[in-house]
Fold each of these.
Amino acid sequence: MSDSDFLAQLGGARLTTAEVLYYRPDFPALLQSFIWQTTDTAPDFPRLNRFLDHWRREIEAVIHSVTVAHAGLVRPAEWRGADMMVRLH
């Protein structure tokens, strides 16, 4: 039996990291950061959007901005030739 996240990656989901900058009501002058990671599918990012919808409904902190990074974990092997070879004793 395969892991569901691995199967999702084979279907196009990739590691997604979101940095949420937000203000808390008790410290409105202080900008805070929250990092969240999951596997998600670009360009729609359905899991990230569900998370942000939950944040807006359930958390009193106001979102300032969201930065998203998206990278593939499952990909073909890469081969690169060496430009130089050095031997250390």
Amino acid sequence: MKNQISYSPEVRERAVRLVFEQQKEHKSQWMAIKSIASKIGCTAETLRTWVRRTEIDQGIRGGLSTADRERLKELEQENRELKRANEILRKASAYFAQAELDRRPK
């Protein structure tokens, strides 16, 4: 099982800011990420993910922003709940319709 280290939002923001500030001093953004990741004690891939997410949120890179992802997740959950409710109502309707047909006329 992987050891998961939780970094505070302040550490994440600072690391991403450092990448943006120092990428001009390196040959590529990846080199800047590797350099800064080793200094703050996270993996380069973790920092790269933070940088990409920030670029998307700022509109620099295409993709779903964090707010859009959260909204999509909420809508998907609501959709699942509505489908479950519709299924329950459909079954109840069928049950009561069958019960009405089985009733003896007076």
Amino acid sequence: MDLNQTETPIAPEQTAVRVALWRALHVLIDNKPNIFTDEIGEKLVAENGWRDRPDMNPEFSKNMRASIVGRARFIEDLVEEQVAQGATQYVILGAGIK
């Protein structure tokens, strides 16, 4: 690499950021008990003022949040089921946050 060139900053894909924040929003504002509890996504993104983003509007994001947390719950239940049957590892592909 040419030392005179500036590197493009590495940043997470916006889709991954949005999903992490919707999962956080689910924990913060949706009715209890939560379908899925993710308190790490918000910390990974570490974006100030994220709740003011238009795509975080509670009404706008309601259906998409439900889809995201429903899929997360399904996968977690599937992993637990497979561990009970003897699985010792699994691989997550395409996480999007680097």
Amino acid sequence: MQPIKPIHNEADYELALQDIDRCLDAAAGSPERDRLEVLTVLVDDYEAKHYPISSRCDRQ
């Protein structure tokens, strides 16, 4: 597994999503579950900055 790093662009974002997918079935308390938790925080932050919900709702 690659080290966890910040998400700076779409390529990093896609890699993080793939990594999340690989960790979804990880057992509670495992290193993979910890990785999943950290990656979801990073993805959530990236999505909030690049895909804000309010801008999609404002177009109606």
